[in-house]
Amino acid sequence: MNKYKDKHRINYILDKLERIAHLDFSGRLKINAITDEIDALSVGVNMLSEEIEFSLREKEKTAQKQVNLLQQLVDNSPLGSMVVHIENRSDITSLKIVIINDACEDALGIIKENIIGKTILQAFPLLYDDYPVIIDGLKKAIEGAELTLNRVELNSSNSLPSYFNVKICPLVNDYIFLSFENITKRNEVERKLKKVENSILNSIIFSQENTRKEVSKKLHDGLAQTLFGLKFHMEYINKNVRNSKDKELKESVKVVREYIERSIAEIKSLALDLMPISLVEEGLSASIRNHINDSEYKYNVQLESNINDEKIDYDIRIVMFRAISGILDKASEYTKVKKIKVQLLNGASVSCKIEIWGGFNIEVNNDGEIVEEEFKVSEKRINLMGGSVYSVYDKNLGLTTILMKVSL
To answer: Rounded to whole angstroms, how far apart are CA atoms 204 and 198?
Structure first.
């Protein structure tokens, strides 16, 4: 055995192992014809190098597939999204941006081509000092925690501060997903949509009121007048047959006359329900009082009013009337109701307080806003006028209090 040559052969093996450790797989160890223990070790090192190289290539392929999949998911996300890779788990500054979508580019006012492949601090130099909450979130994500940061103030694409909901989520293979939802922009869009929705609803509601008014007028001026004419004619016929011996004829005339009178009363009632004339001629208080008197509720309804109807627009009158009369009519279906008190007040606004004793309850949410479908329309109408409706139920007293308010 040549100790000098053996020493060099062993040094080659050590050098190869060092290069493998640095992921350098170039070159193979030569195998001598001696086939001694050093050759066997060289064969083993060559095989190890090939296995590690193959394993890394497969891992790279898998990682690339994951990146491609993440790219598709991020690209299809409606939120501003990016994916970073943890290069060094002990160094937060090593997080490298690997994926970013167009929505994120638009939301944060960045050019993705300029920051792909950079670390987050290279891409966002002020992140560490100005946004410690995001840095803390990334540190927790490295440890495996998923979290959402609400209302984080960031500079948006127009360089003006905007509020974002930021979600940070750890993924497999040392990736971290971040999403940025611009809630300032979302709120603006929602406000615009709400405005359009309210405008449409407002048009529908007042179109319905105009239709009711038109139908009411036709009933009153058309059909009712025709029936009045028939009634007058039947009175004339009745006088002529009063002395008649034909009992059947007299009975028929009587039945027809009663039918006409009943029809006139029903049409008058229907016309008033569609559009109370008193709303125009006398105002809200008188209309509510007339509705209470005409409805003949089985329970006591007390009305207290201290409003100046001249200051109240017709649109507000009709909206308040529909809401109040609807609640009174609904309460009348509840047999345990004992008493209702309605108070009308106005100053800078028209207010109505309705107290219902007897266990009648309207379903509301935690904020006291009405959720019961039958009352949602009335509430919506009042909301469209810039008003509000709230309901509170005291189970111990069996008392429901409903508050309505519309600014003048």
So the answer is: 10
Query: Structure tokens of 226?
Result: 């025709």
Maximum distance among all Cα pairs of the chain, rounded to whole angstroms: 156
Tell the CATH topology of 281-408.
Heat Shock Protein 90 (3.30.565)
Q: How confident is the model over 187-230, as pLDDT tens digits?
A: 676 677 666 666 666 666 666 666 666 666 666 666 656 666 66
What's the pTM value of the predicted model, to 2 decimals?
0.46
| Position 35 pLDDT exceeds 60 | yes
Cβ pair 366, 360 in contact under 8 A: no
Kindly state the tokens that stand for 143.
């440890």
What is residue 348's three-state secondary structure?
coil
User: How many angstroms separate the CA atoms of 78 and 182, rounded?
Assistant: 11
Superfamily of chain region 69-186: PAS domain (3.30.450.20)
305 is written with which tokens?
A: 């009013």
- Find the Cα–Cα–Cα–Cα dihedral 327, 328, 329, 330, rounded to 10°: 50
Burial string for 303-325 (b: 16+ CB within 10 Å, else e) reads bebebebeebeebbbbbbbbbbb
Q: Measuring CA to CA, how many Å separate 195 from each of 69, 198, 313, 390, 407?
A: 40, 5, 22, 22, 18
23 phi and psi angles, rounded to 5 deg:
60, 35
Domains 69-186 and 281-408 share a fold: no
How many CB atoms are located within 10 Å of the residue 6 CB? 14
Q: What local confidence, expressed as pLDDT, does residue 96 receive?
A: 93
**pLDDT the model gives residue 95:** 93
pLDDT for res 311:
80
Residue whose tokens read 């409606």: 78
Q: Using DSSP, how many helices (H) and how many strands (E) does the chain show?
A: 14, 10
Per domain, the residue ranges of the chain are 3-64, 69-186, 281-408
Q: Distance from CA of residue 51 to its chain's centroid?
A: 55
**Would you say 190 and 161 are in contact if contact means Cβ atoms under 8 Å apart?**
no
Whole-angstrom distance, CA of residue 188 vs CA of residue 267? 48
Tell me the one-letter amino acid at 161.
P
